[in-house]
Amino acid sequence: MSKFTWRDDYRVGNDLVDGQHEHLFKLANKVFDAQDKHALKHCLQELFRYVRKHFKDEERLMSQLSYPDYDHHLQLHNEIELKLSKIDAGFKSDQFSITALHTLMNDWLLDHILKDDRSIGEWARKRR
Ligand SMILES: [Fe+2]
Questions:
Q1: Which class does domain 14-127 fall in?
Q2: Cβ-contact 88, 48 below 8 angstroms
């Protein structure tokens, strides 16, 4: 399975968000590097916890910036969280699909960051 490689052109232009995104790439790779079930469980927990923290931080930033697309963006976060919860539940009931997680991370890390999160960065620059 291909690894996630951080690139500077993924930056949205906000240091907090960019630092967290880069860390998410690292945590996602740790999941795919996990060698056994115990390690996988630990890495998944770490990833899921960090995703939730990251979303909360991003949502706080959007509200501080009076970001006009806040509600839609919040909805996108909720959808991703729901998908992660399903994957987490699958892990707990021994029906875990690493491929499903990879697809979700790939779609999210690349699509959501490059499109939706970038709009937050653009809005922040305009307001300066
Ligand atoms: Fe986001």
A1: mainly alpha
A2: yes
